[in-house]
Amino acid sequence: MSRTYCKAYQLKEMRQFEAWQERAMSKELTDETIVYLWDDFTVALNPIQPEVLFDHVTPQWQTFCQTVLGFRIPEELADKNKFEVQEVKA
User: Fold this and answer.
1) Which helix (H) or strand (E) holds 35?
2) Organism's domain of life (predicted)?
3) Are strands 34-38 and 43-44 parallel, antiparallel or unpaired?
4) 21: which residues sit within 8 A by CB, 6+ positions away?
5) What strands, in cross-sheet order, belong to the sheet with 52-54?
């Protein structure tokens, strides 16, 4: 699945996850730094040229994103992705 959707959060929200371990970056990241959670559950610093900050995607991380952060892919995009996957399988 190609990445088609991301949502912005403050880094302090991500840091609530007990297993959060961000990659070292060239610039200082504060709790107020805006980061982007993608539909594949990776986290990037920039939505255009993603510099991946976190990519340790586990079922626990996905549950955290959905329940604590309220992350949901909009229905119209989720339906589009399902259609694309079905086309590839045919």
Assistant:
1) strand 34-38
2) Bacteria
3) antiparallel
4) 54, 56
5) 6-10, 34-38, 43-44, 52-54
